[in-house]
Amino acid sequence: SITITVSFAGDDKYAAADDKIITVTVGLTQAYWYYVLPSMAPELDGAEISLNVGDSFPPCYAEDEYGNYLPNGQPVKVQFNETCIIDTTVYDNVGSFSVDISGVNPGTYTVTFSSPGYTTATATVTISKIATEINVTNSTLSLNVGDEVDSGATLTPADAGNLTYTYSNSTVAVVVDGKIQALAAGTAVITVSFAGNDTYAAA
After folding, report:
1. Pairing state between β 121-128 and 48-52
2. Mean pLDDT score of the chain, rounded to an integer?
3. How many H-runs (helices) and E-runs (strands) does the chain carry?
4. Where are the beta strands (DSSP E) in 27-144?
């Protein structure tokens, strides 16, 4: 709020008047923020939204308490944290705006949606790496020295990355180009791993 002081200093004929005070409080226009799903458009305020790395943020729009959409060109700020702030604008006449999350790291964020002159909305947004899984055809193998068989290990999704192999005894058996090579008599435990990367979670 602001205080306005109204004064009259007086002149040769009229005496000065007592000051009067006017207090003016200017509030924000109530805004309702929405995100669009195939069959509904829930409010963003209080929403919990889960996405995977590489997903697009759902389309969004906002309107005021009277049903008027935020005007075309109206700036919108989407703040994930102190350092990750996405500036966007309304791009049509129905209050629509987009949120580019391609630069947002995986994690859970309390996201604030705001626009000058309007009340804000806050949502919880979780961006996760894509889950992966290792499948092994045979967990136990009996081989003879000199045998070479397919490891039978696959990663889902297949394009997530490369599997790594570690050995309890690499003099007995190793994996080369996806094939187990039996090198000497004995027992070896081969551990198949996927460490994950920026997009895919470790298996």
Report:
1. parallel
2. 95
3. 0, 17
4. 31-35, 48-52, 60-64, 75-79, 85-89, 96-97, 107-114, 121-128, 133-136
